[in-house]
Amino acid sequence: MAGEQKSKAKTEQVKGKVKEVAGRAVGNERLEAEGRAEQAKGDARQTKEKAKDVFKH
User: Fold this and answer.
1) For residue 57, is pLDDT > 80?
2) pLDDT level of residue 11 (50, 70, 90 thresholds)
3) How big, in percent rounded to 5, are the helix, strand and coil portions of the chain?
4) Which of 26, 27, 37, 57 has the greatest count of CB atoms below 10 A from its CB?
5) 14-53 pLDDT, tens digit each
6) Closest CA to 42 of 2, 12, 1
7) How many Å apart are CA 45 and CA 41, to the nearest integer?
8) Can you tell me the distance from the alpha carbon of 42 to that of 20, in angstroms, rounded to the nearest whole number?
9) What average pLDDT does this structure show over 1-11?
């Protein structure tokens, strides 16, 4: 389960980065903001999973 959540976090981060770059490239501020938000969501998920690992050991 933890591995699945970690990969989901990484996927969100990558998708967010792609959206942010694409939004910046075409001048779409909304898409750029969505990308940053998705990256933040992935970062939060990753932090949560790392914290679980610390307390698990």
Assistant:
1) no
2) very high
3) 95, 0, 5
4) 37
5) 999 999 999 999 999 999 999 999 999 999 999 998 898 8
6) 12
7) 6
8) 14
9) 85
Extract the tokens encoding 5. Answer: 């959540």
Which stretches of the chain are DSSP H helices? 2-26, 29-56
Q: Which two tokens stand for residue 18?
A: 């792609």
The Cα-based distances of 46 to 7, 12, 26, 28, 38 in angstroms read 9, 10, 29, 27, 12
CA–CA gap between residue 40 and residue 26 (Å, rounded): 22
Distance CA 3, CA 22 (A): 29
